[in-house]
Design goal:
Blueprint: E1 3-9, E2 34-40, E3 43-49, E4 57-60, E5 63-73, H1 75-81, E6 87-88, H2 90-100, E7 108-118, E8 123-128, E9 137-141, E10 144-148, H3 151-156, H4 166-175, E11 189-190, E12 195-199, E13 204-208, H5 223-240, E14 248-251, H6 257-264, E15 272-278, H7 283-295, E16 299-303, H8 306-322, H9 333-341, E17 347-349, H10 354-358, H11 370-376, H12 381-395, H13 400-420, H14 427-451, E18 456-458, H15 464-470, H16 487-492, H17 494-504, H18 506-509, H19 528-547, H20 554-568, H21 579-585, H22 593-606
Parallel strand pairs: 14-15, 14-17, 15-16, 17-18
Antiparallel strand pairs: 1-3, 1-10, 2-3, 4-5, 5-6, 5-7, 7-8, 8-12, 9-10, 9-11, 12-13
Helix pairs in contact: 4-13, 5-15, 6-17, 8-9, 8-14, 8-20, 11-12, 12-13
Length: about 600
């Protein structure tokens, strides 16, 4: 199930409004899907499957279970039953729930939201996975609940208030994502990770069964044992995560993560297709092509060339819609790629989260931007927040009075949830918890939501069993330096990759990375490892100075779409400031491109009619 909508009128007074269909939305005209409808007294559900199957829906004795996403049994389940981890569907989940109650979450993992509608008790339960990068959105009020993968569909019921959430918009300007469960609409919330929600006619309650602080360990496993355990777990994951499909797409880049999945995959080469995207002759195309040539594997580059430029704007608008406004318009390569690749397989094995789990925070970029670094390393967060608020007002992307009106709410939330809560761990670990809980999740959440309509993303590195194990080892980034203070420690997480290549596909260790060195260089004794790495890094830096970003050219690709949006989309919300047009006119937006493109996406999402 890759799209889902459900409305429940607990009191029988609100009504369920007009019947909803995803496939009537023009953005779904090119989506391959089977639409299912379930109607009950005072309730209506609709969901999309890629094939004609109802594996993700089960009903027993008036209890209806819906599975959005993918679920597997985990190591704890194997310890209890002796069964190896496997993919499971709605009927098995229902049996586990009937036997264990809410405790069944102890025995499952994956990327999912499970909903359980008990028609006999007139209650509704929502269960999210521990890391939840594939969320649902919900509105609860006046005795009714509406929950869906699409905010747009919820708004089109005309039962949900469209009141903007000013605090969420201000947070977006600071962090490049909203905090907690906030969305751009005050009455619509996003499901949180590791949480069980209970809804009825009279109340909503929630219980968190997992939190990111549980990952921290003071005592770590020995290095050699860690390498063996981690590589074995990843190998299990890579094969488990595509066990339900005959064919699979394998994302490959010039880096470590996709290469590791390739090394660990145990299946015939005819059953998978490697791909990468980038401008012609970029390292993100040339290195994967070299890998596949050496290993005699099928490879299809998604070239971001003249043909891509022609389809760019349409793909960018899909990105805005399918991400519920959270992804910037510069990410149009997502939908462009999967429009083409889905004909081979709808299951996409990706290296997402690998480096983010393993490496320390060593540069300021997307998940750790300038504002978040300044705030979390500050000795006086309250004063620093005041400075940040003044700075984002100067951009004038959003009206200053909106930011002023939400500052106290934001300060109270941040100081409580991300400073007092993590105070016992110290400044650095508190920042790591914030990035894992908010930054890493929210960044990749954008892509995964976009991809879902074309392909099902599978990411073995963000697996519960692997993440828990990783943070018991010295290879977790949390324990290995901070923001570039130790280059040697930054390389420590990369040793796992080099170990995997040497053990499972030695050829991969000999092929140069986009970082300029070879994975095998990491395994050389000192000082030979240092000399090889130093030389490679210097060569890669020289290449970057000469070529610039040879993978993407968002400055060029987005300019026409941004111009069109600003000229032809009228702001009916009263939220946005003149800075959007002013900075585009004088081209100063190029110095702030990511943040600017995020706001343009929100502008378009909240003003869809033009």
């Amino acid at each position: 199930m890759f799209d889902y909508f459900h409305i429940i009128d607990f009191t029988g007074k609100q009504g369920i409004g007009k019947k909803i269909s995803f496939l009537s939305n023009p953005f779904y005209k090119n989506i391959d899907a089977v639409e299912y409808v379930k109607e009950y007294e005072n309730s209506f559900a609709v969901f999309l499957e890629r094939e004609k199957t109802e594996n993700n829906y089960a009903e027993f004795n008036g209890v209806c279970l819906f599975l959005y996403g993918t679920v597997y049994t985990n190591k704890r389940h194997m310890e209890r039953t002796g069964e190896k981890p496997r993919i499971i569907y709605a009927s098995t989940l229902y049996k586990m729930y009937a036997e264990n109650g809410d405790g069944f979450t102890d025995f499952i993992k994956g990327s999912f939201v499970i909903t359980i509608f008990d028609r006999t008790q007139n209650t509704f339960k929502v269960i999210t996975d521990r890391l939840n990068v594939l969320p649902l959105y919900y509105y609860y009020g006046s005795g009714a609940l509406i929950i869906s993968s699409s905010v747009r569909i919820m708004l089109e019921t005309e039962l949900v208030p469209k009141t903007p959430d000013y605090a969420a918009l201000a947070e977006q300007l600071i962090f490049d994502f909203t905090l907690g469960t906030k969305t751009y609409f005050k009455e619509i919330k996003r499901t949180d990770n590791g949480t069980i929600y209970n809804f009825s006619a009279s109340e909503k309650s929630e219980t968190r069964y997992w939190s990111v602080e549980r990952l921290y360990n003071k005592k770590l496993l020995p290095r050699k044992k860690s390498l063996e355990l981690l590589s074995a777990q990843l190998r299990e994951n890579a094969n488990l995560y595509c066990s339900d499909t005959g064919k699979v797409l394998v994302a490959l880049t010039g880096g470590f993560d996709g290469r590791a999945n390739l090394a660990l995959l145990d299946r015939s080469k005819e059953d998978f297709l490697c791909y990468s995207y980038g401008m012609p002759d970029s390292t993100q195309v040339s290195i994967p092509r070299k890998i596949c040539g050496k290993l005699d594997l099928s490879y299809e580059p998604v070239l971001l060339d003249e043909r891509y430029e022609k389809e760019h704007d349409e793909c960018a608008l899909e990105v805005v819609e399918f991400s519920n406004g959270t992804a910037p318009v510069m990410r149009s390569n997502y939908t462009y790629a999967y429009r083409k690749l889905k004909s081979f397989s709808s299951v996409n094995l990706m290296g997402l989260f690998g480096s983010e789990v393993m490496r320390p925070l060593h540069n300021v970029g997307i998940m750790v931007n300038y504002y978040s670094e300044k705030l979390f390393l500050s000795d006086n967060p309250s004063e620093t927040l005041d400075e940040i608020f003044e700075d984002i007002k100067k951009k004038n992307y959003i009206a200053a009075e909106i930011i002023d009106g939400s500052t106290q709410e934001i300060k109270k939330e941040i100081l409580s949830e991300y400073f007092k809560k993590y105070n016992a761990y110290g400044k650095v670990l508190g920042f790591f918890f914030f990035i894992l809980q908010e930054g890493v999740r929210k960044y990749f959440m954008q892509e995964i939501q976009v991809d879902r309509v074309y392909v099902t993303a599978r990411f073995p590195f963000f697996d519960d069993d692997f993440v828990e194990l990783m943070y018991k080892t010295p290879f977790a980034g949390m324990y290995n330096g901070f923001l570039g203070k130790s280059k040697f420690k930054r390389r420590k997480g990369q040793l796992l990759y080099a170990h995997i290549y040497r053990k499972f596909r030695p050829e991969l260790g000999k092929i140069r990375l986009d970082r300029g060195y070879r994975p095998d260089d990491l395994l050389k004794p000192f000082p030979f490892n240092f000399l090889s790495l130093y030389k490679g890094v210097k060569e890669a830096a020289a290449y970057k100075r000469a070529k610039g970003n040879d993978t993407f050219n968002p400055e060029k690709w987005t300019s026409g779409l941004i111009s069109d949006i600003l000229q032809n989309t009228h702001d009916k919300t009263g939220i946005f400031g003149s800075g959007l047009k002013d900075k585009f006119a004088d081209k100063s937006y190029l110095k702030d491109l990511l943040k600017y493109c995020h706001v343009i996406s929100i502008y378009k999402y909240m003003n869809p009619g033009d």
